[in-house]
Structure formats: C-alpha cells, structure tokens
Amino acid sequence: MDGIKYAVFTDKSIRLLGNNQYTSNVESGSTRTEIKHWVELFFGVKVIAMNSHRLPGKGRRRRMGPIMGHTMHYRRMIITLQPGYSIPPLRKKRT
C-alpha cells in the first residue's frame, strides 16, 4: 500500500461513491497495474476499471531567496469496482 497516499473526499468523489467508484491520490511514479494489484490484494475486491489524471503542483507563497517554492505534482486515480464489492472508508489527509 505504499503507492496509495490517501483517499480524496470532494463533492465529485462523494457523488461517485454511488456508482461504486473510489477516488484516491497515489504516488506519481506508480502504474495502473501496480495500483490495481495493491487494491485487489489489500481490500479483497475486484477492480473493473481505473481512470487516472496527473494534477500539477501548486505554487507556494513562501520564497527561498530568489526562487519561488512549489509543491510536487501528484496523480489521482478513480477506481471502479464490480457490483457487490466495496472499500471501507479511508482516513482523510490531515491538514
């Protein structure tokens, strides 16, 4: 489970839960097959589809001398499970 960072709870992701789709942020270097294998192995579910998109890093207000800081980019996966399977709620990222 090293590749999955945390679950995402936005308006869209909560709406997708009704379609048996779960959203989480993952390591940017992880592949779809790795994430699928981890989810199926750890939660004991069957994954039928995975969609992903790469979100850009954001600029930060704090400056380190002449260089403006930024956060790292990350990848978000939307995982669709077979009907009858579900994933227990994951913990939210602490802010």
UniProtKB/TrEMBL annotation:
Tell me yes or no: is 4Fe-4S among this UniProt entry's keywords.
no
What does the UniProt entry say about where the protein is found?
Plastid, Chloroplast
Record's InterPro entries? Nucleotide-bd_a/b_plait_sf, Ribosomal_uL23-like, Ribosomal_uL23/eL15/eS24_sf, Ribosomal_uL23_CS
Q: Which GO terms describe its cellular component?
A: chloroplast; ribonucleoprotein complex; ribosome
The protein's gene is named rpl23
Instruction: List the lineage, top down.
Output: Eukaryota, Viridiplantae, Streptophyta, Embryophyta, Tracheophyta
Q: Any idea what this protein is called?
A: Large ribosomal subunit protein uL23c
Q: What does this protein do?
A: Binds to 23S rRNA.
Gene Ontology terms, MF aspect: rRNA binding; structural constituent of ribosome
What's the superkingdom here?
Answer: Eukaryota
Q: Show the Gene3D superfamilies listed in the entry.
A: 3.30.70.330
A Gene Ontology BP annotation from the UniProt entry: translation
Q: Signal sequence: where?
A: none
The subunit structure is:
Part of the 50S ribosomal subunit.
Which keywords, in A-to-Z order, does the entry hold?
A: Chloroplast, Plastid, Ribonucleoprotein, Ribosomal protein, RNA-binding, rRNA-binding
Pfam families recorded: Ribosomal_L23
Q: What is its main location?
A: plastid
- What does the sequence similarity comment in the record state about its family? Belongs to the universal ribosomal protein uL23 family.
Name the species this protein comes from. Answer: Sargentodoxa cuneata
